[in-house]
Structure formats: C-alpha cells, structure tokens
Specification:
Layout (H helix, E strand, L loop, with lengths): L2 E4 L7 H13 L3 E4 L1 H15 L18
C-alpha cells in the first residue's frame, strides 16, 4: 500500500455513497478512509482491548445436580 488518505465523512445520500465507493475503488495504491470509518475502527479496537469484567459464577446447589 503506497498511501492512506483519511478525509471527510461518510456520504449520507445513496447516490453519493455509490459515487464515493466507485471513486475509492478506482484508486490504485491509495486507501481512502473517512473520519467516520476511522472512528468505527478505533472504537472496535478499544472495545476488543478493554478489560472485561470478571465473571462471577454462582455456586451449584445439590438441587441442581442430576443425581
């Protein structure tokens, strides 16, 4: 990949979205990412790396045992 360009926001109109996707896909050696897409990626990374709360297991009572 030769270059990454982070620019603008995701188009809201369907016609604009199609035109943007056609333009983006026509570029060679350039990855175009919108600010909205970058934010989504960063939020997904943050969620994946955030510590998970510990799982609290409930004790099993004799009534729950099969025999």
């Amino acid at each position: 990949m030769a270059a990454i360009v982070i620019i603008g926001r995701n188009p809201t109109k369907v016609v604009e979205q199609r035109a943007f996707e056609q333009y983006r896909n026509s570029l060679k050696d350039v990855l175009v990412i919108t600010f909205d897409e970058m934010l989504e990626r960063l939020e997904a990374i943050h969620k994946a790396l955030a510590p998970k709360p510990p799982v609290v297991l409930e004790p099993i009572s004799d009534e729950d045992l099969p025999f």
